[in-house]
Structure formats: C-alpha cells, structure tokens
Amino acid sequence: MRIGEKISAIVTGGASGLGEACARALRGRGAKVALLDLQAERGRGVADEIGALFVETDVTSDESVASALKQASEAHGTARIAISCAGIAPAMKTAGSKGAHDMALFERVIAINLIGTMRVMSQAAQAMREAEPIDQDGCRGVIINTASVAAFEGQMGQAAYAASKGGVASLTLPAARDLARDGIRVAAIAPGIFGTPMLKGLPDEVQQSLTAQVPFPARLGNPQEFAELACFVAETGYMNGEVIRLDGAIRMGAR
What's the rounded Cα separation, in Å, for the pair 28 and 6? Predict the structure, then answer.
C-alpha cells in the first residue's frame, strides 16, 4: 500500500499525542484522515489545521464507533488504514495503603485500551473486507494498534494498564490470521517512554526516573517517530501479525 491522496485513514486518539502525530504524518503524505477522539475542542483544532475530519467518538460505545466510521466513510470513502491510539494510563497497586485495586478503574482501563481497540479494529475490518483490493497482493487495508512495553514489563501500579496492553499485543496474531483471507493486515506498535500528554501528566520525578532507564538515545521518544513507524508498517506489505517495540532498548524496571 502506498499512502497518498487515494488512501483514507482513521486515527483514534487523534486529538493529541501519538494519534495526533499519526494524523499529521498521514496527511503529510496526502492521505484523507479522520480524527476520532473525545477531546472535541482540541480535535477540531488539529483537524482544521491539517485539513482533516474530526468526529467526536467514544471507543467504549458500539454506536459511537459505528457512527464515526460511517461519517468518515461518507466523507472520504472506506478507511484503508485504521490506527488505534486512544488510551488511558491511571496508576494503582493491586493492593496497598489505599486498599484493594479499584475494580471500576480496572474495568475502565480495559474498556478503553483493550475492548475499545478491538471494537474499532473489528468494525473497521468489516468495512475493509467489503471494499475492493488496492494492490497486487490483494490488500484491502491495514490495522495498526498501540500496545506498550508495559505489556511485557509492567511496573508497580500498572496492573490495569499492563493487562490492557498485553491484551492488545495478544490480539495481533489471531486478528491477522482471522483477516488474512480478506486481505487485511494487522500489526501493533509497543512504544516505550514517549513525550505524550499521558506521560507528561506523571510527576516530574517519575518522568525523570523513566527517562533515565532508556539506554540509547537517552531521551523520551518523539511521537513523530511513532508516526513514521506506523506509516512504514502501512506501506510494507509483508509486515503482518507482528508486535514491534519502539523503545530505545529500554527494559522496564519494577518501578
């Protein structure tokens, strides 16, 4: 698949962070992009700036996602690239001075990060499989989900987040196998420590501790680097069923 003006894409979490970077990178290559996010004011601002469509979307709702995909399709045609970046990362220990883990919080993290990703993937794939192939391999589309290095090395306080991202990583291969006959590829990117609003919302000492763990380059990842990898995956036809770490060789410590 070659990203260009004939390709349409949807990006969840597109109003900020990794999703915004992906939306900008796709538009920079000429693709028609729809940003799906709950952050309406910021999302509209980004969309207006880059010439994209914004649709206020709740990934925990079947109806909201279906409506968003319909609006995006009516504006741009069937999305051939679907990138899921919507997510949250609250911290809480399994048990501790604050008591047992708040299960409502745990369920919310799973609902957004894991079930929301599956919801968008399945609905986007259903639309892709009904479209015509776009290259000599018979590709109808590509889905790129966001896992995390926490899927493999979750830290203290990351039980919910790590579980959700572990689920995203584990979804990748079976989803790729499910959709192979339909000409739809599935991959996931597992970013390390990136300079996103999610990370920058953590206390300074936590940010410094995390950055210090990155072997090289010893810095936060740039969301643009994530976006460039996402575009590479979209354009590399043999990339399928893989979870790709993008992390400066970090292996997370316990805290």
Answer: 13
- At residue 236 the predicted structure's pLDDT band, cuts being 50, 70 and 90, is very high
Q: Which residue is catalytic, options 161, 189, 192, 233? A: 161
CATH for 8-246, among 3.40.47.10, 3.40.640.10, 3.10.25.10, 3.40.50.720? 3.40.50.720
Per domain, the residue ranges of the chain are 8-246
Going by pLDDT thresholds of 50, 70 and 90, the confidence category of residue 118 is very high
Residues 6+ apart with CB under 8 A from 12: 19, 36, 37, 57, 59, 83, 84, 85, 86, 116, 120
Q: Tell me how far apart the alpha carbons of residues 214 and 192 are, in angstroms, rounded to a whole number.
A: 9
**Entry pTM:** 0.95
Q: What's the pLDDT tens digit per position in 24-64?
A: 999 999 999 999 999 999 999 999 999 999 999 999 999 99
Active site residue 238: no
